[in-house]
Write a structure and sequence with these properties.
Layout lengths: L1 H23 L6 H4 L9 H17 L5 H47 L4 E3 L3 E3 L44
Helix pairs in contact: 3-4
């Protein structure tokens, strides 16, 4: 009987400790929980666009003269355009390396005359310079291309007919 009472008291204390632990701790919330997402109206771009809407409204209700409207619209339009251009340039500079790589790759393929190849069994294949299909092993139609000069290879040849480079088996 005594062991049961001691076990019950220990279990009760453990449950109490688990329940009271968060209340007794003065742990600060995580740093990310304190950071609120930025409201669009609080950004410089949002402020400039809100100001443009406001001057349009003030002109429509007769609170602004045509001269004041023109001056304010020019000022805030220039500011909004500068912010939009800066944002666009930032986006372009982030995507530029990928776009440049894709353009270089496309230009190299065009210069080498490498077109799509297809397997008689599997259809079009992504390997533009392969001689054999990576899926089934059959010889690809359209043949392979020379690694050195990009010329079309003779399927049965061991050397490129254009530059004489050895062809991989």
């Amino acid at each position: 009987m005594t062991l049961e009472v001691i076990a019950a008291i220990l279990v009760g204390l453990a449950v109490l400790a688990v329940v009271l632990d968060p209340l007794l701790r003065n742990a600060a919330p995580p740093a990310q929980a304190l950071i609120e997402p930025e409201d669009f109206e609080e950004t410089p771009k949002g402020i400039a666009l809100a100001a443009l809407r406001e001057i349009e409204f003030d002109r429509a209700t007769g609170k602004l003269s045509d001269e004041d409207y023109a001056a304010l619209k020019a000022k805030y339009s220039e500011e909004a355009l500068a912010l939009l251009r800066a944002e666009e340039n930032a986006q372009i500079s982030e995507a530029a390396p990928d776009r440049i790589e894709a353009m270089v790759e496309a230009r190299l393929r065009a210069l080498r005359g490498v077109g799509p190849v297809s397997c008689p069994r599997c259809g079009p294949r992504p390997e533009t310079d392969a001689i054999f299909c990576s899926n089934c092993g059959d010889q690809l139609s359209g043949g392979g291309r020379c690694v050195a000069c990009g010329a079309a290879l003779n399927p049965d040849g061991r050397f490129c007919e254009s530059c004489g480079a050895a062809v991989a088996a």
